[in-house]
Each structure stands twice: as C-alpha cells, then as structure tokens.
Amino acid sequence: MNTPEQPIWRQRYIEALEARHYSPRTREAYLPWVDRFAALNKGQTSSQLGEREINAFLTHLAVHEGVSASTQNQALSALLFLFRYVLKRDVNSLGEVIRAKRPPRLPTVLTRDEVKHVLGCLVGEDRLICRVLYGTGVRLMECLQLRVQDVDFAASTVIVRHGKGGKDRRTVLPATLKQELQKHLETVRALHIADLKDGWGKVTLPDALEGKYPNAAADWRWQWVFPQARRWNNEFGREGRHHVDPSLVQRSIQLASLKAELGKRVTCHTFRHCFATHLLESGYDIRTIQELLGHSDPKTTMIYTHVLNRGPGGVHSPLDRM
C-alpha cells in the first residue's frame, strides 16, 4: 500500500472525514491508524487488501501491543471508514471482522462531600470550569467549546452544540452558578473589547459560517466562554483566541485530586459521572438524565443505576447482625 497511490488515498481520507463533519479530534485519532495499517501492508495495492489484512492488523494490536478493547475498536472504525468512503469497497464483502468486546466497567463516582472537597482544592477559572462540569453534566470539550450565546441565564439552560455524535442538546444551568458565571463573562467581555481595539477579537466559527457571515467572528455572542489567556496568530498574520486547552484543566484536576487525598482516581469525566449518579439519588427518572447527558441509548445511562447505594452498598452483611 506504500505505492504512488498512497498520497492520493491519504488526502482523500482527510477530505472524506471533513466532508462528513467528523470532529478534529476524530480526524487526529483516525489518520494514524490508517498510516500504520499501510505501513504493515507495505508493497500491497489497495485492491489486494481485505478482511484478512484488517484482522491481522487488529490481532497484532491486541496480541503484540496489548491495546485495550476500545482502542482496537477505534482502529477498526478508522479502517472501515477507509474502505467504505475512500477505497470504495463494499464493507459487507469484508466478512467477519474481529471486534474486541469491551468489558463493562463501573465509573468512579464521588460523594457530594468528596466533590465539594475536590472543588475546594481548585482555584480561579479551573474551579469554575469544574463546577460547570459537575453542575451541567457536560463533557470537558463540550464545556470548553461553549460560546456566550449557548448560556441562557433566563431559561437556566446550557446548549451543547455539536456534542458527541454531532448532536445538539440542552442541559440545566445551576442557579448557584449564575452569579459566578456572569461575573466571569464580564471579565471575558472586557478582554474581548480590548482585543477589538487592538484590531483582533475574532474567533474561529464552525461549518464555514465565517464566509456566510463575515462579521460574526467578532460578534460577542460567538466568543468562547472560556478563552485562552494568550492570543494565537497564524501564518497569515491573523490573531485571535482559542478556548482553554483541555490539558491545562486535566492537569489542574489531577493536582487537586492528589491534594484532596481521596484514594480515588478523579478526572474531568468523573464530574459527569457524579452529575448523573447524584441526580438518580435525588429521584430523577432515567429518561430525563439520558436527555441531559445526550445518550442515544438508555442502556448507556443505566450504568449509573449500578453505582447507587442500592446494590452491595445497601445490603447489611449478616456479620453486622451478630
């Protein structure tokens, strides 16, 4: 597959991902897999590749590299996209392709006091971001990609646009967050006004909207709720602000969890798990929580019923009765 045709299909692969509005993170994840697949099948043309080569690649990942089931399935998804949309091969003709089974895992969930303790170990903008994660149940990137117009203080809702699977949804905006978030946006607006005075103040827009609405990039409504501290500048001499880098928030949470000394692994996604579980504990129905989280299948949301104190944690051992 490392033949003169490779640069052609590789570029077509990128274009196919963009045409179908796959997120930048998905593009970054998929492309290395097809590159590695090509390297493993060096010397073969695309017409010579099929089920046997895909299975051999996936087996290599599992046996020799010990990758997880989710990583193996991501590689398979990247290759199936290659065959379906770039090489124009009928996926059904690939036969039985090995799919790793992902063992069920119970999410790590903190108690309300533990959440409060971790949040107390955070400061400034990082603390506000984590309060939004826990208070709304959004994912980290969904939080960082919020625009000013996505926060509706009057309706007490937050709109998540282009979430996982490209779907939009609404979730709750906690009343206890409103004042703090409004004060934060006042600071962000002052920063935006200063950028405009300097001749900048534009953000990137989704779905080629900048070409359709030339002035929208500088509009206050389209600015990030959590902009980065420094402006970026590209090869064309244009400056602007992107949203906060997720790695900075992840690092802050890691340090806060160590400081809290809970004995549990706490990540950004832990706050989402806590949001769902604590709503269940409060008596909200599973369907409502499913909509707030943006799950397509209620079975995904049902995992949180298994971490409530209604299972082993709610059983009295006979030893305690002696």
Descriptive account of the structure:
The protein has 322 residues and is mainly alpha-helical. It has 13 helices and five strands. The strands form two sheets. The protein has a three-stranded antiparallel sheet. The N and C termini lie far apart (70 Å). The mean pLDDT is 84.
The number of helical runs is 13
Spatially, the strands of the biggest sheet line up as 1-2-3
Q: Write down the domain tally.
A: 2
Report the CATH architecture of the largest domain: Orthogonal Bundle
- Which radius of gyration do the C-alpha atoms yield? 23 Å
The end-to-end distance, rounded to whole angstroms, is 70 Å
The general outline is globular
Strand-pairing-aware structural class:
mainly alpha
Mean pLDDT: 84
Summarize the structure.
This protein has 322 residues and is mainly alpha-helical. The protein has 13 helices and five strands. The protein has a three-stranded antiparallel sheet with strand order 1-2-3. Strands 4-5 form a two-stranded antiparallel sheet.
Tags for this model:
3-stranded antiparallel beta sheet, 322 residues, single chain, 13 helices, globular, hpI Integrase, Chain A, DNA polymerase, domain 1, 2 domains
Task: Itemize the secondary structure elements and their pairings.
Blueprint: H1 6-19, H2 24-40, H3 51-63, H4 69-86, H5 112-120, H6 124-136, H7 140-144, E1 151-152, E2 157-160, E3 169-172, H8 175-197, H9 209-212, E4 232-233, E5 239-240, H10 246-260, H11 268-281, H12 286-293, H13 298-302
Helix pairs in contact: 1-2, 1-4, 2-4, 3-4, 5-10, 6-8, 6-11
